[in-house]
Design goal:
The two termini are 35 Å apart. Helix content is 38%, strand content 17%. The strands form four sheets. Strands 1-5-6-4-3-2 form a six-stranded mixed sheet. A two-stranded antiparallel sheet has the order 7-8. A hairpin with a 5-residue loop joins strand 5 (97-103) and strand 6 (109-115). It is of the alpha+beta class and 319 residues long. The protein has helices at 24-32, 73-88, 126-139, 172-188, 194-205, 249-256, 264-273, 280-299, 304-318, and strands at residues 20-21, 38-43, 51-57, 62-69, 97-103, 109-115, 157-159, 162-164, 218-220, 229-231, 237-239, 245-247.
Length: 319
């Protein structure tokens, strides 16, 4: 069993030794020079876990800061590890990270500093370009991102505000059952009647009848919906807020379709660049059961009906 970020020191390998500071002012001075201070903190909308700010420095520069309670520094350590992993593939764009740390001010807070992304004019074939970048990311070597198996990640991280278990495994099907569905099912058990729990147990027992092993492991963004895609300074898609791990590429594709989906040009280009295994359409909703269960655990009963629908769909196919 790997050591998780809740049990020991965070392994900074994945963050490229991102500097850690004991105050925001220390960070600004170290990164930009003595005498540099933040003269304005402008709130930025978006996200429901962290506070976000555009910081105006007294040299005229603007940077981006995420903040949370001092005790939640691990959110930023996990985010930095995921962004670093994506950046290491040299494919999809990500914001440049500057540093992180904690500050005793305002009752104590943790922070992550990054470049402020100023969206450029979208490149021609914007979604097709992104599809090819994502396919390249999914084809990239994953040896540096998981230890002791093919699937998982070097550390546990988060999916939203919930812990995401990344214990390594040699089987994608076992990993998805044990590290994705089972923890969410345990957390959501109170929402289900006995007959529903019996159906869920059957799905877990027969996950190998629904999913297939991939041709090769892929680095996944892990939370790939429209809210985590933005236009970067270069006019191309940049990825933010990952829940990164190594898994089956089609799990990322399934997530893109959960909340409205991307334009069809994206899916056509991805399929041309990295054809999906036969039967993906029949597996897509099962992958998204993980995210629906997570939303049920995060936001409550409004997600119970779609969860039940997916459980019923796959239980009926196994009956």
């Amino acid at each position: 069993m790997q050591e998780s970020i809740w049990e020991g020191e965070w392994d900074m390998t994945m963050t490229g030794m991102l500097p850690h500071f004991t105050s925001l002012q220390e960070a600004l001075s170290a990164l930009f020079g003595n005498g540099i201070q933040a003269v304005r903190h402008d709130r930025v909308s978006g996200g429901d876990i962290n506070e976000a700010y555009s910081l105006l420095l007294n040299n005229g520069m603007r940077i981006f800061m995420k903040a949370n309670t001092k005790q939640n520094l691990s959110f930023f350590q996990a985010e930095a590890a995921g962004l670093s992993a994506i950046a290491k593939t040299g494919t999809a764009g990500t914001p440049r990270m500057l540093g992180m740390g904690t500050d005793e001010g305002r009752g104590g807070f943790s922070f992550l500093l990054m470049e402020l992304v100023q969206a450029g004019k979208k490149v021609s074939g914007y979604w097709e370009v992104f599809a090819r970048q994502l396919a390249d990311m999914h084809r990239s070597d994953t040896g540096a991102f998981v230890s002791g198996g093919l699937y998982g990640f070097l550390q546990d991280n988060y999916i939203g505000a919930n812990r995401q278990v990344n214990t390594s495994s040699g089987s994608w099907i076992d990993f998805f059952r044990e590290c994705r569905l089972e923890p969410q099912v345990r957390s959501a058990a109170r929402y289900f009647e006995k007959a529903e729990l019996k159906k869920i147990s059957m799905l877990l027992e027969h996950t190998d009848s629904i999913l297939t092993e991939p041709e090769f492991p892929s680095l996944l963004h892990g939370d790939l919906w429209a809210g985590n895609v933005m236009t970067g300074n270069d006019g191309r898609v940049w990825l933010i807020d990952p829940a990164a791990y190594v898994g089956h590429a089609e799990a990322d594709l399934a997530m893109t379709e959960l909340f409205g989906g991307f334009p069809q040009a994206f899916y056509r280009a991805y399929q041309e660049a990295l054809p999906l295994q036969p039967g993906y359409d029949g597996r897509r909703d099962f992958y998204n059961l993980y995210h629906l269960l997570n939303h049920l655990n995060l936001f409550g009963v409004s997600y119970l009906s779609p969860v039940r629908n997916v459980i019923r769909k796959y239980a009926d196919t196994l009956s």
